[in-house]
């Protein structure tokens, strides 16, 4: 079976965000970029599935971005993915545009099973997987914490408010990975060496730019540091009074 | 036919959720500013509280009904909503940004070839167009954006848009049977987790961090949450340490929340945690280190021992509530 994993590269979550000169994106100087944390669970699940099915299964990792994304693709190769494809586009910010490029490639490759992170921790929309599925007419289960594939049949558990939904569907399908789905493996030294030798296939991006127009990016209004009411439990009655009378939240 | 704004309501187990009224109210508000009409649509089986909608100024609700659609089915729900939206000529669709909304809205967007903006915290009408503001990088930055598609979809973050009640008379409910729902993907069971409330929906959150010193001390957090009717949250450090389940994690790789009140206990305030909760309306920090970054975003703080302060706070609130 052919399995695709769609991954993205994001600023490290410890990054302090600075707004770029265009006021429409972040200033990337000094930012460390990492593989989107949720995509690591997606890669791991794809590799586990390949190992389980065996035979001549192939895992493709696909991303949209500039040359710097190659490093992230190599990380996926080092973990055990077989092939890597990069759509060269540094400006695509619209999930719709990204999903379009990815879904066309998945179709060309003939992948029946697609994994991706439940959201990418930069634009945080959390919809790329669902968009791809709908564009391809595939089934989809999002925010998955448990995944079982038996022949064509899928039983997955997805996280929702207050619990988990058990979802049944079948291939072809897109699965978006939530933390807790698995423990992503570390790349072995052998894997890292092998990944260095692999070629990353580069393709031009589609000319569809999506539907969104970013007008402005800005920092949230900074909060004034509040009042320290005390250092022990004698401050508790005053805290409760303020929450009730000033904040009116209890 | 006047162009419409459609609020997509969410029901779970036969009841409309609170965020449904927020979506309805947002639709009414936008429609008033744009000179359009606002309607609502819901997919489900029996739903017990539909008449409450009249309070929020929705005059017409379409209930797309089938006995097998009490549980969510991504395929059946998206088919039903997309075909209804097409037929009704809706130009704007407002979904709740819930687990269901995040799953459903993008599918409907593809079917309608419409642009989509997720997790909106503000929707303003400017020059007869809708400008959405949403957080990116887990709230470390905000973007203002608009859509250039013919049909536009927005999802709204729960708890942010307070529903506005109006002196309305009644809501006209049109029940339509969904023929042969497409159940190719369907929910077959729900496993309820322990704990009453989910951080993503709660109006008050009591969160614990490494300062709680161990999972065995989280009963202090749970007791305070109980008296406040709050959800229990956790920092990444304690989730990674296995003290608390991931569903409680607040922050950039957990949930981004905006409750009315967030009480951070023994949380120092790592940047990825602050990103997830600093849009809360009021923040209380309890931490023995007075220099902890959490105090920079807190409205009220007590720079003391959580093990002394938490039980005292629980007692004080109990007194107040009795």
Briefly summarize what is shown:
With about 250 residues, chain A is an alpha/beta fold. Chain A has helices spanning about 35-55, 70-80, 95-110, 130-135, 190-195, 235-245, and strands spanning about 1-5, 10, 35, 60-65, 85-90, 115, 140-150, 155-160, 165-170, 175, 200-205, 210-220, 225-230.
Strand order of the largest sheet of chain B: 7-11-6-1-4-5-12
Radius of gyration of chain B: 21 Å
Envelope shape of chain A? globular
Estimate percent helicity of chain A. Answer: 25-40%
Coarse morphology of chain B: elongated
Major β-sheet annotation of chain B: 7 strands, parallel
How many whole angstroms does the radius of gyration of chain A measure? 21 Å
Q: What's the pLDDT, averaged over the residues of chain A?
A: 94
Which oligomerization state do the chains in this entry correspond to? heterodimer
Strand portion of chain A, in percent?
25-35%
Provide the helix percentage of chain B.
25-40%
Whole-Å distance between the termini of chain A? 56 Å
Largest sheet of chain A: 9 strands, mixed
Q: In angstroms, what separates the terminal alpha carbons of chain B? A: 54 Å
Total number of helices of chain A: 6
Q: Give the integer mean of the pLDDT values of chain B.
A: 95
- Name the poorly predicted regions of chain B: none
């Amino acid at each position: 079976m052919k399995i695709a994993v769609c991954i993205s590269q994001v600023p490290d979550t410890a990054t302090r965000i600075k707004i770029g000169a265009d006021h429409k994106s972040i200033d990337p100087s000094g930012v460390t970029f990492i593989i989107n944390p949720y995509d690591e669970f997606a890669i791991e699940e794809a590799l586990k599935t390949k190992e389980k099915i065996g035979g001549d299964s192939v895992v493709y990792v696909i991303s949209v971005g500039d040359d710097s994304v190659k490093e992230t693709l190599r990380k996926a190769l080092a973990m055990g993915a077989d092939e890597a494809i990069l759509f060269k586009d540094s400006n695509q910010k619209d999930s719709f545009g990204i999903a379009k490029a990815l879904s066309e490639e998945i179709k060309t490759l003939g992948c029946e099973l697609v994994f991706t992170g439940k959201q990418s921790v930069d634009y945080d929309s959390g919809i790329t997987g669902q968009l791809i599925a709908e564009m391809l007419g595939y089934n989809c289960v999002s925010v998955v914490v448990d995944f079982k594939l038996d022949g064509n049949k899928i039983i997955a558990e997805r996280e929702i408010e207050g619990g988990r939904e058990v979802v049944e569907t079948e291939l072809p399908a897109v699965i978006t990975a939530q933390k807790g789905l698995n423990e992503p493996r570390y790349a072995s030294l052998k894997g890292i060496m092998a990944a260095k030798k692999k070629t990353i296939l580069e393709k031009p991006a589609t000319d569809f730019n999506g539907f969104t127009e970013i007008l402005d990016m800005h920092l949230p209004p900074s909060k004034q540091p509040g009042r320290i009411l005390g250092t022990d439990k004698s401050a508790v009655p005053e805290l409760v009074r303020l929450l009730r009378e000033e904040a009116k939240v209890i | 036919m006047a162009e419409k704004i459609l609020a997509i309501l969410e029901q779970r187990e036969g009841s409309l959720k609170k965020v449904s009224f927020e979506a309805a109210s947002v639709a009414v508000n936008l429609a008033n500013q744009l000179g359009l009409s606002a309607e609502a649509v819901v997919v489900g089986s029996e739903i017990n509280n539909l008449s409450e909608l009249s309070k929020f100024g929705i005059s017409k609700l379409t209930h797309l009904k089938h006995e097998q659609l009490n549980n969510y089915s991504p395929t059946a729900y998206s088919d039903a909503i997309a075909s209804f939206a097409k037929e009704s000529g809706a130009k704007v669709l407002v979904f709740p940004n819930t687990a269901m909304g995040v799953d459903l809205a993008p599918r409907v967007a593809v079917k309608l070839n419409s642009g989509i903006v997720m997790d909106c915290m503000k929707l303003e009408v400017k020059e007869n167009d809708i400008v959405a503001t949403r957080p990116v990088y887990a709230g470390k930055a905000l973007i203002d954006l608009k859509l250039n598609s013919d049909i536009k979809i927005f999802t709204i973050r729960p708890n942010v848009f307070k529903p506005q009640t109006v002196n309305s008379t009644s809501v006209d409910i049109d029940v339509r049977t969904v023929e042969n729902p497409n159940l190719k993907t369907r929910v077959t069971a729900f496993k309820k987790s322990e704990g009453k409330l989910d951080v993503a929906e709660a109006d008050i959150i009591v969160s614990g961090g490494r300062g709680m010193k161990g999972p065995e001390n989280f009963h202090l957090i749970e007791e305070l949450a109980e008296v406040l009717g709050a959800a229990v949250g956790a920092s990444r450090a304690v989730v990674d340490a296995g003290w608390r389940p991931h569903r409680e994690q607040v922050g950039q790789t957990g949930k981004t929340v905006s409750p009315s009140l967030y009480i951070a206990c023994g949380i120092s305030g790592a940047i990825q945690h602050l990103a997830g909760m600093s849009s809360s309306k009021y923040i209380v920090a309890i931490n023995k280190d007075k220099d902890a970054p959490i105090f920079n975003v807190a409205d009220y703080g007590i720079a003391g021992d959580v093990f002394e302060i938490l039980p005292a706070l629980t007692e004080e609130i109990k007194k107040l509530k009795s």
